[in-house]
UniProtKB/TrEMBL annotation:
Stretches with biased composition (Low complexity): 1-20
Family: Belongs to the ABC transporter superfamily.
SUPFAM superfamilies reported for this sequence: P-loop containing nucleoside triphosphate hydrolases
Keyword Nucleotide-binding: yes
Gene source species: Streptomyces genisteinicus
Disordered: region residues: 1-27
Lineage: Bacteria, Bacillati, Actinomycetota, Actinomycetes, Kitasatosporales
Entry protein name: ABC transporter ATP-binding protein
Domain ABC transporter: 24-249
InterPro entries from the UniProt entry: AAA+_ATPase, ABC_transporter-like_ATP-bd, P-loop_NTPase
SMART domains: AAA
Domain of life: Bacteria
Gene3D superfamilies with a match to the protein in the record: P-loop containing nucleotide triphosphate hydrolases
Keywords: ATP-binding, Nucleotide-binding, Transport
Length: 333
């Protein structure tokens, strides 16, 4: 091998040009229905080569935002562009943007393959591509079965096959893991990552933070139509790790006084329970030992990602519920 060949071999293979669009840009996106503003001055970017998780509680405005990106709803103000243009300005949108929305429009009496063939035919896409997406989405064995007998998971696969039909640079998927079994969830996770690795732009909505932490590189989090966070998963996880220490002692009052100091927050619960933030279990244990204070429990508690997400979106939840998991008994405010 010559040195020139060796250099060429090491150079990363660039993604095909048709797969490297310029992503999605939402600028001041606003949607009002009557007196209610459901999406409020939303600006964010979705970069090619990444999976971006679009998160928010029920009713946050995720589907409405996706519909505006896809030209299905007109923004009251602002704009969204995909690959540098508004969706409706693309001459062949299916080859630019593939979408999976919650509303299904599949003829139940048709087979999966015929459904895809009809879509392909109306968009000038060859039948060979239909067979390619059937294989890619694992539908080969059921491709000739009527869609009306499909399970939820098979229906989601078919929706994704349709979204991939035009080999688009951008994918916009609304809740693709909704209702799927663990195997289906894992399959979607792997697929989305591989599509992004090919240089595509992938925007995927969910209200499951824990799932997005495993799937996405970047997070755009909204609540009541407003941007709450635009961050990498790594950064979000680091933040969520902000720990507290659960302490149980018969001398809670004395220990709390000894631990008090700048940056330390102590919440006292029932029966000698302390929830301490801003210091760690080593210092608490050492302080207790130094003053002969018995400890019955000394447990570092890491906030779960789901908890961090709920904390972030708490004030933006449209239909709040009281859940034992989010409001543990005895937990102090
Ligand atoms: N056509 C419409 N007319 C009036 N209000 C609407 C319309 N479509 C959506 N909304 C309202 O807009 C808000 C945002 O809804 P949207 O479906 O975009 O939220 P979402 O984040 O996708 O929620 P979910 O996770 O429950 O699907 C909700 O309060 C909803 O009731």
């Amino acid at each position: 091998m010559t040195s020139t060949q060796r250099t060429a071999a090491r150079r990363p293979v660039p993604a095909p040009a048709h797969r490297t669009g310029s992503g999605i840009e939402a600028t001041g996106l606003t949607k009002r229905y009557g007196a209610k503003t459901v999406v409020h001055d939303l600006s964010f970017s979705v970069r090619p080569g990444t999976v971006t998780g679009f998160l928010g509680p029920n009713g946050a405005g995720k589907s409405t935002t996706m519909r505006m990106i896809l030209g299905l709803d007109a923004p009251t103000r602002g704009r969204a562009v995909v690959g540098g243009r508004a969706y409706r300005d693309h001459p062949a949108p299916l080859t630019e943007v593939g979408a999976l929305l919650e509303a299904k429009s599949v003829h139940p009496g048709r087979s999966a393959r015929n459904h895809l063939l009809a879509l392909a035919y109306t968009h000038g896409i060859p039948a060979s591509r239909v067979d390619a997406v059937i294989e890619l989405t694992g539908l080969t064995d059921v491709a000739r079965r009527r869609v009306k007998g499909f399970s939820l998971g098979m229906g989601q696969r078919l929706g994704i096959a349709a979204a991939l039909l035009g080999d688009p640079a951008t994918l916009v998927l609304d809740e693709p893991v909704n209702g799927l079994d663990p195997e289906g969830v894992l399959w979607i996770r792997t697929l989305l990552k591989s599509l992004a690795a090919e240089g595509r732009t992938v925007l995927v909505s969910s209200h499951l933070m824990s799932e997005m932490a495993l799937t996405a590189d970047h997070l755009v989090i909204i609540g009541r139509g407003r941007l709450l966070a635009d961050t990498t998963v790594e950064e979000f996880v680091r933040h969520a790790g902000a720990a507290s220490v659960h302490v149980v002692t018969p001398e809670a009052g004395t220990l709390a006084e000894l631990l008090a100091g700048p940056g330390v927050e102590i919440a006292a619960g029932a029966s000698g329970v302390l929830d301490v933030r801003g210091t760690d279990s080593t210092r608490i244990g050492a302080t207790a030992a130094e003053h002969g204070i018995p400890l019955y429990e000394l447990t570092p508690v890491r906030a779960s990602l789901e908890q961090a997400f709920m904390d972030l979106t708490r004030d933006a939840v449209e239909y709040p519920t009281r859940s034992p998991a989010t409001a543990p008994e005895g937990a102090a405010a």
